[in-house]
């Protein structure tokens, strides 16, 4: 371990990164030759390049015509086999995508005294909050990322208090992305023989919307760290916009194989969340994924997580149990599911076991 790292280990890492709001961004700017010990992944969790399957890639689906049965079939097939796919020609203008990515860079380029205004204890509204890692006060290993999370509430003026450097771009992206998300969920439900996407099902699946600007700063020891540890999403569905740096890997169809989700200009990556796996009774797959970091470039991604309301009861849809199929999952309250996920701390990739019968 280098002298710089040893010296930093004697500082209060939690105070510097979390309480003072410097985050990983602040660590990256210190010129460390290696990362603090709390950011070093155990060897068994590090991505081994021998496990990366180069000849495989997740599907890229043209959705320029949402009424095309072939496109719908490809979406449902990808959701069942891979749990991940990318969509192109989705209708969100390229300028809107580029603007929100640039807004992410601009926010994290702000001086620390400006960024820390959005820490939990300082934020002018609970609908926006600056965080670092996932849960650094609870986890043994920290993630090499900072993120600004926005809880979107329609017709709520609290968004006026979001950071001026990124607020308009985030809201504009949400305006364009929400109809895409609704279309995706409609297609996936039709694949389960749900004929109409009514208000009750909409509430059950896409009631809550959270959008984050995630910043993965350059890392002096990228082979030892991670931007996001292996996990599946507890959302219904997640839509991810990523820049051209790359680093997102999804689990392949064979054990211990990983596939890089190569950035495609203008594309949106879609991944099935736990809730769609539950309501589909395992027809659709919520797949483990992880993010590695870069030693030369900062990376920004913008995920939109769409989830049920906290008090929603989630379980297999009746259509998923037709033809005598037995339920794999019990009915659970979404807030209980979320709390179980948060309680897992260092092992968040098996949350779905909580809902199994």
Question: Descriptors for this entry?
Answer:
10 helices; 357 residues; disordered N terminus; metal ion binding; single chain; 4-stranded antiparallel beta sheet; globular; alpha+beta
Notes on the protein architecture:
- There is one protein chain.
- This protein is an alpha+beta fold and 357 residues long.
- The chain is built from ten helices and 14 strands.
- It has helices at 3-9, 13-19, 23-28, 69-81, 94-109, 112-115, 167-190, 199-206, 274-279, 334-343; strands at 60-62, 84-88, 128-132, 146-152, 208-216, 228-231, 237-242, 248-251, 258-260, 268-272, 289-291, 299-307, 313-314, 332-333.
- The chain has an eight-stranded mixed sheet. A four-stranded antiparallel sheet has the order 6-11-8-9, with no helix packed on it.
- A hairpin with a 6-residue loop joins strand 8 (248-251) and strand 9 (258-260).
- The longest helix is centred in the middle third of the chain and has 24 residues, at 167-190.
- The protein starts with a helix and ends in a 14-residue tail after the last helix.
- Mean pLDDT is 91; it is low at 1-7.
- InterPro entries: DIOX_N, IPNS-like_FE2OG_OXY, IPNS-like_sf, Oxoglu/Fe-dep_dioxygenase_dom.
- Keywords: Iron, Metal-binding, Oxidoreductase.
- One of its GO terms (biological process) is coumarin biosynthetic process.
